[in-house]
Amino acid sequence: MFEKPSFRSPVRRRRCIVPACGYYEWKTEGKEKTPHFIKARDDSVLFVAGLWERWNAKDGGEAIESFTVVTTEASGPLKSIHDRMPVILSLADCGAWLDPAISDPTDLKPLLRPAPADLLEFYPVSKAVNKPSNDGPDLIKRAG
Question: How does strand 88-89 pair with strand 46-55?
């Protein structure tokens, strides 16, 4: 994020927080990929660090707004699924992440740490999550 030119401006001026009840990650074992749902142990909302961008078409078409999730190294048992995880901010850190007075990206580095290992839990879910047209609460139920 600090080296890539495409993130230079967003990290200085367009930081956002993505509220989430959890996220999916796929654990690879051999040729098999098993989806897992990762969430707060206490079912609280996760505040995920993000960057947003607006792209304007040269032909004057409709602007497209998008965001990306900022990631860091995985913590604790999550390392068994994937080596990266979203940056999950504490409520206290959200203000600093969104503070427009912080324009030097190096001042944000202390916020880009892995979440405490005991904050999250994860479990396997149905492979139905692999199809984007599937939606609903069944997608976060424990498989098995």
Answer: antiparallel
